[in-house]
Amino acid sequence: MSTAYFKIAGGTVYDPVHGVDGERRDIWIRDGKIVAAPSDPDVRPDRTLDAAGLVVMPGGIDMHCHIAGPKVNTARKMRPEEKRKADKVVRTSTTRSGTMGSVPSTFATGYKYAGMGYTTAFDAAIPPLAARHVHEEFEDTPCIDKGFFVLMGNNHYVMQSIHRKEPERLRSFIAWLLGAAKGYTPKLVNPGGVEVWKQLQGGNVHGLDENVAHFDVTPRQIIEQVSRAVDQLRLPHSVHIHANNLGMPGNWRTTLETMKALGDSRGHLSHIQFHSYGGGEADENTFNSKVVELAEYVDAHPNITVDVGQVLFGETTTMTADGPLGYYLSNSFGNKWFSSDTEMESGCGITPIEYKNTSLVHSLQWAIGLEWYLLAKDPWRVVMSTDHPNGGSFLAYPEIVQLLMDRTYREETLKHVHPAVLERSTLAGLTREYSLYEICIITRSGPARILGLANKGHLGPGADADITIYTPNDDKKVMFELPRVVIKSGVVIVDQGEVREPVNGKLLYVAPEWDVSIETDLAAWFEKYYSVRFRNYPIPLDYLHEPEEVACR
Amino acid sequence: MSTAVTKPADPSVKVIEDSTCTFCGCVCDDIDITVKDNHIIDAKRACVLGKSWFYNHHADDRPSCLIEGRPASVAEGVDRAARILTAARYPIIYGLSDTTSEAQRVAVGIGDSIAGTVDTTTSVCHGPSGMAFQGVGEVTCTLGEVANRGDLIIFWGGNPAESHPRHFTKYSLMPKGMFLPNGRKDRTAVGIDVRKTKTAKAMDLFFQIKPRSDFEALWTLRALAKGVEVDPKQVKDDTGIELARWQDLMDRMKAAKFGVILFGMGLTMTRGKHLNSEALLSLARDMNAHTRFVVKPMRGHGNVTGADNVVTWQTGYPFGVNMSRGYPRFNPGEYTTSDTLARGEADAALIIACDPMANFSQPARERLKSIPYIALDPKDTPTTRAATVVFTTATYGINVPGTVYRMDDVPIFLRPAFPSPHPSDFDVLSAIQRRVKELKQ
Amino acid sequence: MSLTLRYKANTSVPVEVEGLTPSAVRGLSVSEIERFEIFNGNRKLPLAEFFDVSGDSADGRIEFLGNLSGVHWIGAKMSEGEIHVRGDVGRHVGSEMTGGTIHVHGNASDWVGGEMHGGLIHVHGNAGHLIGSAYRGSKVGMTAGTILVDGSVGNEVGLTLRRGLVAIGGACGDFVGFNMAAGTVLVFGQCGNRPAAGMRRGTVGLFGGTPPTLLVSFRKSGVFKPLFLQLIFRQLQSLGFAVPSDCWTANYSLYSGDHVALGRGEVLIRETTAS
Amino acid sequence: MPILETFILIPGRTSKQGCGISEGKFEDGYQHEITTLQVAPQDMKRLGLVNGDRVRITTESGRQIEVAVAAAAGDELPPGLLFIAYGDLSSRLMEGDTHGSGMPTSKGFDVTLEKLS
User: Coil, helix or strand for A457?
Assistant: First the structure.
């Protein structure tokens, strides 16, 4: 890359990391990074972008989505009927064609994120056995930096190490597995429950202290031990948790127990909306919101962070490593159902669904998501997400921004959902409106801090020059849907919504140390149970395109 | 990671451990191959098909490129190929099941650039199963799950004993698994087919059904699974098997802890095709109301599963993808290669690593013969012999590194043994893509 | 007078005229219509390269003339007006149409009235596969309207049909009414194997040739002369569809099914022994 | 007068055919495998066929191939069923129509078998 200066002049800058709240500033870029203004006043930028009157923010960061790998690709294959009717993504001289729907093709995914001002995204659930597949798809997903979380909550070696009370072995295995897959942090999906699903018809665990047969461990032990190991490894991000009992009435107790099980360890609870339900088991009449209780606990515990998993009304495709959940959803919606169990590691469930504003349950899910944004006091620990595509598409983020920033719009929308929402959630009484500064936190600076990405989510010297420039508009949906300019690593990739130069984007991974002495036992165990050779499992660094190691804390 | 090359005494001999055989969908990655002077003299653990794959490998002494039968430079061939493809109004790209996913990704990109149609051998293999999956979904798993948990294994309309020889020993029948400490003894194996094949002879139970009655047999089992009363006489007439035997099978299926149905092209190629597959996928789904049950198509070629994955992630659709409008469209029976050729619509073709001149219907072959087309193949085939431009390419897995996807979508790493004098599919396709873009300027 | 489009091209490459509907061309001058862009494979070209255009479009009626078997999507998504084709046509005739009438005086290829939502299609010759069907992956097929084919058709007629009427004068292929959710499919000629497999609701009438054996998951529940058939026959006749005389007087066996699916569907098979 | 009988013909993969692909499609081994029609021993006997006899196979639509016959091993084939290794010849019997599936019907052909003298 050239060493020329690129200056974004006179924009209204939002940079919460440095406490900059809508001040007029210049931003200097060199070698794809943000740099201090040159001390020599005679230095002229080789290129200047006049941002006067425009809003300047760091590029958006989606810390929890499903955009690559076997699960996502299977969902694409499964939904020709949705893709056929969706918007077309037509080939241009610089961009590839593709398809949309709730699960866009890879190139389309990159273009659409960039077109919305997002420049980084993390896939939340990858079985390491399929990591190679993910790296291949990521190389075909332009415009954004990418990384993924590695499924470990039902990994046999993890459960075996916990059962044998071997925390050092567990820690080394986690480091080895992250290194083998070139992943970012351990992900726990319905810890223990997926293994039970593999063993029994309709099998699952329903509480933190149920025993997982054959492995003789409990979900609580998995959460305690893995979160501790992650902190001991000083990984940039915490353990990333999809708690047990997702979507079930009354599951808020399980969620609270999960938070408590973390003790002092860091923990990120993903799509918390799906885990904040009161009411009796499978009893719709008592189904209600428990955000107040859970948000209170989160506020009081700085080791805990969440992303929301907002539900939007309309059709989408649910996809999860939570096999039993997929079975439950396909039965309740009566749609086609895909399920795949990955040896030693994970499960997978996919089924199309539709969220209806006429449905009590769906309306409450929508309201509970908004409650989380509006009730949680510290925006640095609440991240915007739709758990794309489970709650809705990532393309709904501008809609969510408007719901948060514009109280009248929110109240108008509330009139069109199931009336019971008024009694069963506190949403109607919430008057809070987000500022641009706070929006910048929950979509950029917050996720960057939670993920431990020192070079992202801010506009200070040393930051990656991933920058989004918006044209101010009272209609916040319009403002955030169509950025004026999007810059990735110092390159203007989007201009007025048009993808100009689809740069490739980096692969973000961690490389913690492990005790190599475990490899002997690991190899023996591996050859006994896996269907691929131990030697062929780890992914060499030279397989990756534009890899960037993110340092441990 | 540990190096996979050990150096024996004789310096001219090289052993590559845990190399991958790409001949069939099993994609065994545990083959130790011994190489002496660019010849494979041993392929430890390879099956009869694998040994033939490795031992018969020799860099074909044909030139790397032929244009209308005359030797030409690769550059000339690339230019001619790009001109044929850009001049065409309905060009098709077909094959792709025997090359790396890296090459497949470039091929789909060419299809996009020339606004053509991209299809893979899936459409004449398990394409119908893919359509069935789009209808009802699929309950499945990786092969390691079969090895570790599968206590009832049903082989339906396939003959892995001859088409996937190591499937029994590595994945489905013999292995001692986590929940099956005694291996074969802990499993019940059931064969359902119209022929008493070598596979049938390895089974505990065999159902020799009437030819073309797979759908009726599957519907009978679906009825029994749901407890629907059926007429014994009609069941016997329809399937050639007594109801009592079907009932016994259903009882065993319900009693199994983890049932597995592995099926072949006896379903997808026989009258009923995708709806035979849909009946089977539906049965496997139904069974999950009683116990854990999975189903898995036995994919044929080394990387046909990769072709499905690559075409899907780049376009959103798995095979038979038409991009003539500038965006992808999908409609099996319309954009699939057997159809675009047999109906005389395709006016140019890029054929990669497959042999339609030997395996397609007469009308399809006659059309292909009558249009300009380019063929990439390591070997001399009826398709390469009739092509306008032929590239002799290096063999994936043996000469070329990269990624392939096993029949259960598990991506597998390739460890080539030695280089080839010929370019790889990836090299040739990348050059064609560059030339196409130049011509489009 | 109506707009006349005489096909003059000679190309093996598919010609796609999606969007060329009565409402789209109404009020356009001949020269404007000649510039209307259609597709020939991957080339976007003016209509005039393929058709001689004459007449005017004011009355919302389009006449296609010539052998259009290589021309596809005629009348796709049309909402009103009339299209008359004199000659054979290609695929997707009247696909996703919501209203209006299409008459094909010749043979049609596959996907006639694919995912149709209203209106009438009458093919006076034979038609191909997947008539009045859903496209792959969709659980909602045709939702309203009427498709009449005087001649014979191929496989999967009325795949996952939701509502509406499909009547086939001649023979049909395999899997008529597969996974039907509701609606009516009547076949007056011989039908292929596995009729009505997986049907959840709706009616499949098999009135011709040797009565087929239904799958084991169907149950016979009697023999009678259903009144509603007489009503449908009258409706068909009024639309110019020939109903064989013996169908009016015949007895019909009623089967319920498919009990492997929801099982609320009915199959009516004409008894060969006249009453 | 020629024997003219109806059978169901099933093309399929064999390990010989599979190995033959690697050995080379123009080699004798592969060619022999894909041009040999397997017939149930009972049918061979009944029709007075011996290994190597040439027969003509004709589909309902009139597509034809000529092949040599060989008795199927043991009880692999029931009477009335024919088998041939998947390849050039078997594919010549397929129709262009795929019934809106992309897959031509490639197994289970209704054919007549005619002994060539």
Answer: coil
